[in-house]
C-alpha cells in the first residue's frame, strides 16, 4: 500500500492506493493551520500500513534535496503556510520513503502514467483555478531546476479591451493575475460559474490561456497539453483555446497534432478527482524518493 497526499491551499486530499495508481480510500481535510491540518493527516494514515508516501504540494516548494530547506513550502501568499517544513513534519510520524514534488508535476506524471497522456514521455498539466500552475514532464522526467518552473506567472500581452489591473500579489498582471478564477471574478464582478453565458468573458480568458500555451509549445514542445482546474469546467473554453493557439502558431509548427487534430492535443484531464492522488503515487513509483 502506498499513501498519497494532494496538498492544496484549500484542502488536503489523502488517500491509500496501490503502485498502479488505484485509489482504495480517500479523505478530504480542510487546509487551516499547519498544526491542525497535519494532525488530521497523521491520524488518517496512522493504521494504514503504508510502505511509502507520495506528496504533491501547492507551492512554491523547495525540491532541492541538498538544500537545508528541502521539503519546505517557501514563499506562498497562503496564510500560515509560509516557510512550513511540510516533509519534515511528515517524517516525524512516518519513517518510510517519501516522494515529493509540486501538485502540478504530480498531476502531469499521473496523467502520463494512467490518464490523458498515457504512454507519452512528454506532457504538460495546467491547472486554472484559484491560481495557475503548470507541471511538465519532458523526455520522461519531471522538470525541476534552480527551483522549479513557475509557468503560471509568465507575462502576457494585454487584451485590448481589458482594463482590469490584475491581482497577482507579486506581479500584478502576469498570467495568473489576469486569468485565474479570482481575476475573472474581480474583473466581471460575478462568480465565474455565473458568467457561463457571457461570451466576452471566455473569449478573453481563452485569449490569455492560448498565449501562454503557445509559449509552452514553443519552448517545451510537449506531446500533450492537459488543462484542468475549476475554471476549465467551462468546456466552451476548449474550442476557443484551440482556435487561438492555431492562430498564434501561424502554421509555423507544421505538425498534424496542431494543424489538424488540436482537439486531441489540448485536452481535459482523464483521471478526474483522483488525478492528484494518482500523481502522488506516481512520485513514489517513479521519482524523487528519498
Ligand atoms: P483550487 O485552485 O483552489 O485547487 P479549483 O481548481 O476548484 O480549486 O479552482 C477554484 C476556482 O475555480 C474558483 O476561484 C472559481 O473562480 C473557479 N471555478 C470553480 N468552478 C467553476 C465553474 N464551474 N466555472 C468557472 N469557474 C469555476
Ligand atoms: Zn504572478
TrEMBL record:
GO terms for molecular function: ATP binding; fructokinase activity; metal ion binding. The keyword Magnesium applies. Gene3D superfamilies: 3.30.420.40. It is an enzyme of class 2 (transferase). It catalyses: D-fructose + ATP = D-fructose 6-phosphate + ADP + H(+). Keywords: ATP-binding, Carbohydrate metabolism, Kinase, Magnesium, Metal-binding, Nucleotide-binding, Transferase, Zinc. Coiled coil: none annotated. InterPro entries: ATPase_NBD, Carb_Metab_Reg_Kinase/Isom, ROK, ROK_cs. Its cofactor is Mg(2+). Its EC number is 2.7.1.4. CDD domains: ASKHA_NBD_ROK_BsFRK-like. PROSITE patterns: ROK. Pfam families: ROK. It comes from the Bacteria. Belongs to the ROK (NagC/XylR) family. This is fructokinase.
Amino acid at each position: 500500500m502506498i499513501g498519497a497526499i494532494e496538498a492544496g491551499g484549500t484542502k488536503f486530499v489523502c488517500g491509500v492506493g496501490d503502485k498502479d495508481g488505484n485509489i482504495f480510500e480517500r479523505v478530504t481535510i480542510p487546509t487551516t493551520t499547519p498544526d491542525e491540518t497535519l494532525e488530521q493527516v497523521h491520524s488518517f494514515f496512522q493504521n494504514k500500513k503504508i510502505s511509502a508516501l507520495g506528496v504533491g504540494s501547492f507551492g512554491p516548494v523547495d525540491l532541492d534535496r541538498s538544500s537545508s530547506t528541502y521539503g519546505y513550502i517557501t514563499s506562498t501568499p497562503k496564510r500560515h503556510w509560509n516557510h512550513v517544513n511540510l516533509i519534515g513534519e511528515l517524517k516525524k510520524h512516518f519513517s518510510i520513503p517519501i516522494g515529493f514534488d509540486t501538485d502540478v508535476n504530480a498531476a502531469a506524471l499521473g496523467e502520463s502514467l494512467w490518464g490523458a497522456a498515457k504512454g507519452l514521455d512528454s506532457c504538460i498539466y495546467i491547472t486554472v483555478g484559484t491560481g495557475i500552475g503548470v507541471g511538465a514532464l519532458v523526455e520522461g522526467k519531471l522538470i525541476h531546476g534552480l527551483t522549479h518552473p513557475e509557468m503560471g506567472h509568465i507575462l502576457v500581452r494585454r487584451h485590448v479591451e481589458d482594463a482590469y489591473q490584475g491581482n497577482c500579489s507579486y506581479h500584478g498582471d502576469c498570467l495568473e493575475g489576469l486569468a485565474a478564477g479570482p481575476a475573472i471574478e474581480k474583473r466581471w464582478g460575478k462568480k465565474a460559474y455565473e458568467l457561463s453565458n457571457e461570451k466576452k468573458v471566455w473569449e478573453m480568458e481563452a485569449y490569455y490561456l492560448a498565449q501562454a500555451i503557445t509559449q509552452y509549445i514553443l519552448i517545451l514542445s510537449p506531446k500533450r497539453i492537459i488543462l484542468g482546474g475549476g475554471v476549465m469546467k467551462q468546456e466552451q473554453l476548449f474550442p476557443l483555446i484551440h482556435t487561438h493557439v492555431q492562430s498564434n502558431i501561424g502554421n509555423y509548427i507544421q505538425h498534424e497534432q496542431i494543424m489538424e487534430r488540436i482537439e486531441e492535443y489540448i485536452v481535459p484531464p482523464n483521471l478526474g478527482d483522483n488525478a492528484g492522488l494518482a500523481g502522488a503515487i506516481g512520485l513514489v513509483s517513479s521519482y524523487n524518493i528519498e
